[in-house]
Amino acid sequence: MQFSKSTDYALHALIHLGHAERCSNVGIKELSGSLGVSESYLSKIMSKLRQDGIVRAVPGVNGGYELARAADRITFLDVIQVMEGRQKLFECSNTNSRQHRLLAEEGTARRERDKERTGKNECLVEKVMEGAEQHLHQYLRERTIQSVLDEAFKRCSHEANKK
Amino acid sequence: MQFSKSTDYALHALIHLGHAERCSNVGIKELSGSLGVSESYLSKIMSKLRQDGIVRAVPGVNGGYELARAADRITFLDVIQVMEGRQKLFECSNTNSRQHRLLAEEGTARRERDKERTGKNECLVEKVMEGAEQHLHQYLRERTIQSVLDEAFKRCSHEANKK
DNA sequence: ATAACGTGGACCTACGGTGTCCATAATAAA
DNA sequence: TTTATTATGGACACCGTAGGTCCACGTTAT
Ligand code: SF4
Ligand code: SF4
C-alpha cells in the first residue's frame, strides 16, 4: 500500500515544469539533472503523462515538455491516477464463497429489487472501502501542483522578509 | 495502489469470527470452507492477526480462533495495518536531488530554526501526502467489524419485516 | 497414546515496479 | 539539405514481493 517511485518522480517533474513556466519548455536533460533520475526512465514517465494529457511535448532541437494546462488545474489525484492506474482500492475476489452469500445475498429476490430501485448492489465491505476511496480522492483533488508552488513561494518570501 | 488479497481474507475471516461469537472458537477448517481459501494460506493470515493481538488462538483438539476483543473495537484500520504493514503512503526517495534543495531547503539556516521550533521539517509534497494518509486513516478508524455486522443484521431484519 | 489443531519455516511461482538500451521519427539550425 | 538535437516506443533484464504450498513440530482434549 504505497505509491510507486514513478508517482514520486512524476510529481517532482511537474513541479519543476510549473516552476519554470516562463520559458516555454524543458528538456529531459534538465529534468533528469534536477531530479537525479536517469533520462531513460524519466522519459517513460513523461511519455505517460503526455498520453494522458497532463503535459505537452515537442520533439526536435530545443524541444522539451511543458504543462498542458495551468498548474492549478493539475491535481495530485490526476497525477496519481495516471501513474498508478485507475484500479479500485479494494477489489473483491471471492464472490462465490459461502461467506459472500451470507453477507451480500440474503434473500436474492430482495437484492434484485434493490438493484432495480437504487441501481447499486454493493456488498457491505466494498461499501466501506469505496467510501474510503472517495474520501481519499476528494482530498487529493483539492491539492494541485500550483498549491505546492504557492506554499514554496510563501516560505521563500517569508524568508526574504526576515532579512 | 491496492490492498492485498490477504487484507481481504483477513477482513472476511474476522467478520466470520464476529458473526459466530456465540461458540467460543472457530477452526481453520470452517474458516477455510467459508471463505474459499486454502487452509495453509489462511493459517498464515490468522497467525499474523494473532501476533498483533487481533485474535486469540487455542491449539489442540477443538481449538480454533476467537476475537481477542469486542468486534466494535476492531477497526478496519487495525486490520489493514497488520496486513499491509505500517509503511507510509509516500516515502520520499531522492532527498539529495537538486529539486529537493529547491523545495525543502531554501535557506538551510531557516530550516534549522523551524526544526527546533516546530519539531517537524517536512517538505511540501510529503505534507500533502501525509495529510491524505491522515484522512484515510481517520475514516478507516471509524469503521469496525461490528459496524459491518450491524448493517448486515439491519438488512436481514428489514427483510424479515417485509415478509 | 493418539488424533485434532495451530505455528513457523522452507520453498516455489508469477507478476509488476524499476531501470537500461536502442532504433526511429520529428524538428530546428547550419 | 544535411546534421544535430530531442522525444517515442519497444525489447529486455533484474529483483522484490504477493500469493500460495508443504511439512515437521508443539500443544491439547479424549
Ligand atoms: S461479501 Fe462483499 S467483499 Fe465479501 S465476497 Fe461478497 S462482495 Fe466480496
Ligand atoms: S522536495 Fe520533498 S518529496 Fe521532493 S525530494 Fe525533497 S523531501 Fe522528497
Radius of gyration of chain A, in angstroms, nearest whole number: 22 Å
Mean pLDDT of chain A: 86
**CATH class category of the domain at 5-74 and 144-162 in chain A:** Mainly Alpha
Strand content of chain A: under 5%
Each distinct ligand = iron/sulfur cluster
Biggest beta sheet attributes of chain A: 2 strands, antiparallel
Oligomer: homodimer
Q: What is the assigned CATH homologous superfamily of the domain at 5-74 and 144-162 in chain A? A: Winged helix-like DNA-binding domain superfamily/Winged helix DNA-binding domain
Overall geometric form of chain A:
elongated
CATH topology of the domain at 5-74 and 144-162 in chain A: Arc Repressor Mutant, subunit A
Which strand order do you get reading across the main beta sheet of chain A? 1-2
- Which residues of chain A sit in consecutive blocks of at least 5 with pLDDT less than 50? none
| Run of helices and strands of chain A | HHHEEHHHHH
Helices and strands of chain A: which structural class? mainly alpha
Describe the model.
- The structure is a homodimer of 163-residue chains.
- Chain A is mainly α and 163 residues long.
- Chain A has a domain at 5-74 and 144-162: Winged helix-like DNA-binding domain superfamily/Winged helix DNA-binding domain (Arc Repressor Mutant, subunit A, Orthogonal Bundle), CATH 1.10.10.
- Helices cover 61% and strands 5% of the residues of chain A.
- Chain A has eight helices and two strands; from the N terminus they run αααββααααα.
- In chain A, strands 1-2 form a two-stranded antiparallel sheet.
- The longest helix of chain A is centred in the C-terminal third of the chain and has 18 residues, at 124-141.
- Chain A is elongated.
- The two termini of chain A are 43 Å apart.
- In chain A, 28% of the residues are buried.
- Chains A and B meet through α1, α2, α4, α5 and α7 of A and α1, α2, α4, α5 and α7 of B.
- Bound molecules: iron/sulfur cluster (2 copies).
- One iron/sulfur cluster is lined by residues 92, 94-95, 97, 99-100, 103-104, 123, 125-126 of chain B.
- One iron/sulfur cluster binds next to α5 and α7 of chain B.
- Chain A binds a DNA duplex (30 and 30 nucleotides) through residues 4-6, 27-29, 37-38, 40-41, 43-44, 46-47, 50, 57-65.
